[in-house]
Design brief:
alpha+beta, four-stranded mixed β-sheet, two-stranded antiparallel sheet, 6 strands, elongated
């Protein structure tokens, strides 16, 4: 897996288009992806798992009072989860949707280890500001809003994964996101006809990342090749 990621990243150095990316737009995308990954991680946490949280109060014997909370409501545990998510941001790349040119970020490979099929709808892009990785944006987002984020998850209902945390932080609290930044059906729709027109203008992808997934590509197995012209139908003799 690691060799595959390194190989793909090396190819992208040649394949990517360099462009000036709006930092606010990129912050929004990283923020939204962080909370989507965080909710996935929390769903995997065993509900019985507890952690001790000190409240700096002492009992009559001078012992620090400890309170046990579900792990997924602990500020420390949430911080650890987000730290791991930020490190995974190096597995993401910046892309533009071919249909509309809207910016997005995507994982290089799926959880099963294959190339992300959504790449067929996009073209890779590198930010002019190469010093700021997606991991950097993720870490800064959490550092700047740690108290608000951990408080949201600490006070949420016991079994709720806070589906509205993304909106509460990324849209309302930080102001990173605006509605137009969120990809919709117009951005993600990509057909074989659209791909054919795109290739006419930009040429085929020399590294094999472009084009539609095999399931979406038209069946041309019965079509004649350039060296085998279609024969006219003379009917039965």
């Amino acid at each position: 897996m690691q060799f595959f990621l390194i190989h793909v990243s090396f190819l992208l150095c040649f394949l990517s288009v360099s462009a000036k990316i709006d930092p606010q737009n990129l912050k929004c995308l990283v923020c939204r992806e962080t909370f989507q990954e965080l909710n996935k991680a929390i769903l995997k946490v065993e509900k019985w798992k507890k952690v001790e949280v000190g409240n700096f109060r002492m009992d009559a014997d001078g012992n620090t009072l400890q309170q046990k909370l579900p792990a997924h409501r602990s500020a420390v545990y949430i911080s650890e989860l987000i730290d791991g998510i930020c490190k995974k941001m190096d597995d993401y790349v910046r892309v533009y949707y071919k249909a509309t040119g809207k910016l997005a970020i995507m994982q290089l490979v799926t959880e099963s280890g294959g190339m992300n099929p959504e790449f067929s709808k996009t073209t890779f892009v590198t930010d002019d500001d190469l010093n700021k990785s997606l991991e950097y944006y993720c870490e800064r987002m959490f550092e700047d809003n740690e108290d608000e984020i951990t408080e949201l998850y600490r006070t949420r209902p016991h079994d709720d994964v806070m589906p509205d945390a993304e909106r509460a932080i990324c849209f309302e609290h930080t102001g990173y996101c605006e509605p137009w930044m969120v990809p919709d059906e117009r951005d993600t729709t990509w057909t074989s006809e659209m791909e054919a027109e795109y290739v006419k203008v930009h040429g085929p992808d020399p590294y094999g990342f472009g084009g539609l997934p095999a399931a979406a590509a038209p069946d041309t197995s019965g079509a004649p090749t350039a060296d085998e012209p279609e024969q006219p139908d003379h009917g039965e003799l």
